[in-house]
């Protein structure tokens, strides 16, 4: 049989990876990961103000290096047999572009301006703007937030655009339109980045830009202008139609065909977010709850439109027809920090070591710290009097987005050590997950099984066992190391015509599951009690602490 290959490209928070996959069998034949150089140096970011920007050059360099690196691992005939490429990225990660679709930071005059760069999903500089969007939407004839859980988040498209237009006169003058990362990269590969004609992702538009067929697309110009006259007219320079990830965006441009040494016959699929393509790669099926567990978590549930479509689910990150697969409602939720909470704790410990003992000692410590703390924490008993933590170190994404919230630790004593705190942080991330699962169930959305993918799911049996105990549900971990990239490859195989549907691509290319964590009855009961304490602490921080803080200021 003449082999056909597809490439899935997954742009994560810290790095981009490409996976070359046999489109008929799903066998992975080459992979390469490229870390973003500028991002790694902390450029254009300020964690203290929650500003996180990524330079488009990090993406372009990464795109070329990841695909060429992955192809370099394959035999020489594979390049000629590549027929499709699809891309997933984080989101909402939008950027201001000029009339040609060029991100402003690629122009010499904006090269160092963070406001002309991609505003990463975890950037929360637009909390105030998100609140304004909520207030206006809730008093408008049409509540534009109704399909995104009733709350618009500062992690999303419009809040980020509004904030940037307000604070940066230069961007205001030169931003013709705005584009999501997943749309831009896919467009770059086709050579058509015209913001008015490129095919925009249904997934990005529906979950983050308030696009819905009931609204004839994006919110009305009247609504946007009332929000701020700075947004007036922008709707016409964005998009009306959106496309699902099984569709084609165009063919590989001559420029990129040369860079990648591939044919211009290669089909480029429509882009989507990492979590949604990850869910495809993890073989999502109706009512399976797929958790992409890494820096953050993104949870995806898929249900037939006719069964859930008429319900409005409170406090989640949206319900979008076709965001995962056509004809199905994709529901998204998640936590703004999961592994990031552990990474914060590791930095807390290693930073003074770096300052006092230098990089070598700190790097050695950093490499070993999380595995070491995990091993120690796994030996600790789980008791009702354990330290309790909140996982809101980067705000709360769901249920009920609130990115002004902060994390907390309760119950410290002189006996508390690094492992006890680490254990509490891991439990906090699991409790945050439990509150999401409970919300789906309360809203009448059943969860048939839980599937996990992502770096933490693969690397940490301790975290996964804790999660299974807290959720009191078995968790299956997908076998694929790069499930998001595999999902993108499945989308590419459908866009390129190898399989008729995503479901067929999953059946042919899926790689199944390798680990399953079962809840341990002896810890489930104690965790139930600790979870109630987590909820109480959360309530205090959200209501009383915020009130006290306002009174004090
Ligand atoms: N052994 C480990 N146990 C728990 N968490 C880990 C471990 N190793 C790395 N992490 C966490 O994994 C996260 C990165 O997840 P990953 O899925 O690889 O990346 P991304 O979220 O950028 O796609 C980091 O936040 C880090 O703290
Ligand atoms: O919300 C998202 C997708 O809808 C983000 O892209 C996602 O949470 C970021 O992923 P990661 O933590 O793996 O970098």
From TrEMBL:
Residues 292-496 form the Carbohydrate kinase FGGY C-terminal domain. Keywords: Arabinose catabolism, ATP-binding, Carbohydrate metabolism, Kinase, Nucleotide-binding, Transferase. The keyword Plastid does not apply. Pfam families: FGGY_C (PF02782), FGGY_N (PF00370). Gene3D superfamilies: 3.30.420.40. Its EC number is 2.7.1.16. NCBIfam families: L-ribulokinase, PRK04123.1. This is Ribulokinase. It comes from Spirosoma profusum. The gene is araB.
């Amino acid at each position: 049989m003449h082999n056909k290959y597809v490439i899935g490209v997954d742009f994560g928070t810290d790095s981009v990876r490409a996976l070359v996959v046999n489109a008929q069998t799903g066998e992975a034949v080459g992979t390469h990961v490229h870390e973003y150089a500028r991002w790694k140096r902390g450029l254009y970011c300020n964690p203290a103000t929650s500003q996180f920007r990524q330079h488009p050059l990090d993406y372009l360099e990464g795109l070329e290096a990841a695909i060429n690196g992955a192809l370099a691992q394959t035999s020489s005939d594979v390049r000629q047999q590549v027929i499709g490429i699809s891309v997933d990225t984080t989101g909402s990660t939008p950027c201001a572009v000029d009339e040609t679709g060029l991100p402003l930071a690629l122009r010499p005059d904006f090269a160092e301006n963070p406001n002309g760069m991609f505003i990463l999903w975890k950037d929360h500089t637009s909390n105030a703007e998100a609140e304004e969007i909520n207030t206006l939407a809730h008093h408008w004839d049409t509540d534009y937030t109704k399909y995104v859980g009733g709350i618009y988040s500062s992690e999303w498209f419009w809040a980020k655009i509004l904030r940037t237009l307000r604070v940066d006169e230069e961007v205001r003058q030169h931003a013709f339109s705005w584009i999501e990362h997943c749309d831009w990269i896919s467009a770059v590969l086709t050579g058509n980045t015209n913001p008015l004609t490129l095919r925009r992702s249904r997934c990005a538009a529906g979950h983050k830009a308030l696009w819905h067929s009931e609204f004839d697309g994006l919110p009305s110009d009247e609504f946007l202008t009332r929000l701020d006259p700075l947004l007036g007219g922008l709707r016409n320079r964005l998009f009306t139609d959106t496309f699902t990830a099984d569709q084609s965006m165009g063919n590989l441009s001559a420029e990129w065909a040369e860079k990648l040494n591939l044919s211009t016959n290669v089909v480029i699929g429509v882009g989507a977010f990492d979590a949604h393509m990850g869910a495809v790669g993890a073989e999502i099926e109706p009512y399976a709850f797929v958790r992409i567990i890494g820096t953050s978590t993104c949870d995806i549930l898929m249900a037939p439109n006719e069964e859930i479509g008429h319900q409005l689910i409170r406090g989640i990150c949206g319900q979008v027809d076709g965001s995962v697969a056509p004809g199905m409602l994709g529901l998204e939720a998640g936590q703004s920090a999961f592994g990031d909470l552990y990474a914060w704790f590791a930095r807390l410990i290693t930073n003074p070591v770096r300052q006092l003992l230098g990089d070598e000692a700190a790097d050695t410590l950093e490499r070993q710290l999380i595995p070491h703390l995990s091993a120690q924490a796994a030996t600790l008993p789980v008791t009702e009097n354990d330290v309790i933590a909140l996982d809101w170190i980067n705000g709360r994404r769901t249920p009920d987005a609130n990115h002004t919230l902060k994390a907390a630790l309760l119950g410290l004593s002189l006996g508390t050590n690094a492992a006890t705190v680490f254990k509490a942080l891991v439990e906090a991330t699991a409790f945050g997950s439990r509150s999401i699962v409970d919300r789906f169930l309360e809203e009448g959305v059943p969860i048939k099984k839980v599937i996990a993918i992502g770096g933490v799911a693969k690397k940490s049996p301790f975290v996964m066992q804790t999660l299974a105990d807290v959720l009191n549900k078995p968790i299956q971990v997908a076998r694929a190391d790069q499930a998001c990239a595999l999902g993108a490859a499945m989308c590419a195989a459908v866009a390129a015509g190898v399989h008729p549907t995503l479901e067929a691509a999953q059946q042919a290319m899926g790689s199944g599951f390798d680990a399953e964590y079962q809840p341990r009855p002896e810890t489930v009961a104690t965790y139930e009690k600790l979870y109630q304490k987590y909820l109480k602490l959360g309530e205090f921080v959200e209501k009383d602490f915020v009130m006290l803080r306002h009174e004090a200021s």
